[in-house]
# Entry
Amino acid sequence: EAQVTQNPRYLITVTGKKLTVTCSQNMNHEYMSWYRQDPGLGLRQIYYSMNVEVTDKGDVPEGYKVSRKEKRNFPLILESPSPNQTSLYFCASSPWDRGETQYFGPGTRLLVL
Amino acid sequence: AQSVAQPEDQVNVAEGNPLTVKCTYSVSGNPYLFWYVQYPNRGLQFLLKYITGDNLVKGSYGFEAEFNKSQTSFHLKKPSALVSDSALYFCAVRDGSTGKSTFGDGTTLTVKP
# Structure
């Protein structure tokens, strides 16, 4: 089954404790992206990647890191999480044709205390 | 910088009536426009897109959208609303050169029996 998977789905952590949210897709897509969803603010793009070893900042990259060492994986790293990073996070992927639809993962709900 | 505006936080319609969810956009190049839907506790699902061609595009579940270049709008429509259409709807624009995506803040559609 074609899908985007994220782990963990739910995470509670404390301020300053480094964490990684994994994202993997099995559709051989070139493009991958991370978003955060907050009430009233819609989805805001954090980082995106057009292919292996190619990443770029979205609208809200501060406090996040990403890497794209393999085509299928695009982990999101929070080196020192803070309470304002409490949010619902979505990973998405698509073929690189700019008209292609993005396929979204199920989401990761993060609470930073 | 590209942007998307969804001027209505909430749209309420009666079942069987037509519905419209509004979206306006700003982008420097040719627009690649999308509508996604999010049901409670779920990820985003693709509804329809405009890339080029006919200004009226048809999508999933009986939805359609009209691209209006002069008004920079891409409103989502359905001739006859169903209670099951109740969800959160997002309009998005994608930069054809960079792949950067921008989403609107979302519009909650409530269809009452």
